[in-house]
Automatic annotation (TrEMBL):
Its EC number is 2.7.13.3. It comes from Alicyclobacillus hesperidum. GO terms for cellular component: plasma membrane. It is an enzyme of class 2 (transferase). This is histidine kinase. The chain crosses the membrane at residues 6-29.
Length: 408
């Protein structure tokens, strides 16, 4: 139980720490990316006057002269389309005009890739410094926007490999640092989860010790009473009644101790596939004979080849507790029925009996709801199943539903 609690708490702490680190990393990376993009776009906008100055000089328009650079040191390449649909370009044009024209959006920034390299493009209209010569370049393409006689459409683009490389390097660094931080946080979360579970563990241990001590203490007066009955002059009928109640009390103390161990996980043992059909049939034969001696006719059948992930001892305890319930609390004489069958991927054990009557003739109201059935419910939960109990004025029904296993 506490192992599951520790795993749950530590898992929640680790998951929340991981999500926090991931969200923090996403925010930091997004802000860095936004800052780099904003700086690059601002530097390109500030380079517009330099490109306009280059267009005013025929040497630049004809692809000669030094390239234009922005404030970040990036080379600015450009194409300019005038009213005569002729194209002027920068001294170096690494990307063909048809590629540029295909991704351009007037007065907007755009990014694209060419030959595996990333570029940023900015398209705008600027005043025509003078009429572009008709012999600058070959045939022009349809411009993005039709320029007037006094303006040209300017396509400015630059290589942003350095910006992308910085982002990639930053991402790798964040992954390394974040991974190391996450491992440290996991270690801290495990220690914190252990410290959080300790108070509950100490309280539960104290409770179990108290139950154990109480069980042993209660067994002492029960044993003493049995000894007194043997040594005192008590009539046989009264002595038999007292011994029956003492045995019942002793069994109840043992059940309380076993239930406490089940709840604490002390009684947990490694599970394995158990052939429950054979065990159930064997127990049913034994209890049927005992029930017949007190006037209860028990009948039922079990399907063959049913397996459950449990231990043989736990399945025997579950079935024998339910059969003993029938013998102790069913009406006499009466009938009781049981069945064990497969239902898809589940196995169902069903037992039903008539409700016994009190001496005064009043119907018992669910007399079986005691420690024994709580043990049954706990064992069913340990088998990853459920126990369902239904009571009417005349019948009492218990259904155990657990996952089925295929035989290996």
């Amino acid at each position: 139980m506490f192992r599951r609690m520790y795993v749950t708490i530590s898992g929640l702490l680790i998951m929340s720490t991981g999500l926090l680190l991931v969200l923090l990393g996403i925010v930091v990376y997004h802000e860095l990316q936004s800052d780099l993009v904003r700086d690059g776009e601002l530097a390109m906008e500030n380079s517009v006057p330099a490109v306009e100055a280059a267009l005013a000089r025929s040497a630049y328009r004809e692809g000669e002269g030094p390239p234009v650079r922005d404030s970040l040191g990036n080379s600015i390449y450009y194409y300019a389309v005038g009213s005569s649909a002729e194209i002027a370009h920068s001294p170096h044009a690494p990307v063909p005009f048809e590629v540029i024209h295909g991704v351009a959006v007037l007065r907007k920034f755009a990014t694209f890739a060419y030959n595996g390299e990333p570029y940023r493009l900015y398209t705008l209209t600027v005043p025509d410094p003078d009429a572009l010569p008709s012999d600058v370049v070959e045939t022009a393409y349809n411009p993005l926007a039709s320029p007037s006689k006094t303006t040209v459409v300017l396509y400015m683009y630059s290589l942003i490999t350095q910006e992308r490389s910085m982002l990639h390097h930053t991402l790798r660094l964040m992954e390394v640092v974040g991974g190391a931080g996450f491992l440290l946080a996991v270690a801290g979360d495990l220690v914190l989860a252990r410290r959080l579970v300790q108070p509950a563990f100490r309280t539960w241990s104290a409770y179990n010790e108290s139950v154990l001590e109480l069980s042993h203490e209660l067994q002492t007066p029960i044993a003493t009473a049995n000894a007194m009955l043997a040594s005192r002059g008590v009539d046989p009928h009264t002595a038999a009644d007292i011994r029956r109640e003492l045995e019942r009390a002793s069994k109840m103390v043992s059940d309380i101790l076993y239930l406490s161990k089940l709840r604490s996980g002390v009684a947990d043992q490694p599970t394995e596939p158990v052939a429950v059909s054979d065990i159930t049939n064997e127990l049913a034969d034994r209890f049927t004979a005992v029930a017949a001696g007190v006037g209860i006719a028990v009948s039922g059948a079990a399907d063959e080849g049913l397996f459950v992930e449990t231990t043989a001892g736990e399945w025997e305890r579950l079935i024998s507790t339910l059969f003993k319930n029938v013998i102790d609390h069913a009406a006499r004489p009466s009938t009781a029925s049981w069945s064990l069958y497969g239902e898809g991927r589940r196995i169902v054990f069903l037992v039903e009996n008539a409700v016994g009557s009190r001496v005064d003739g009043d119907r018992r109201q669910a007399p079986e709801r005691g420690v024994g059935l709580k043990i049954v419910e706990r064992l069913a939960q340990r088998m990853r199943g459920v126990a369902r109990i239904e009571t009417t004025t005349s019948r009492f029904l218990v259904e155990i539903n657990v996952p089925a296993l295929r035989p290996h």
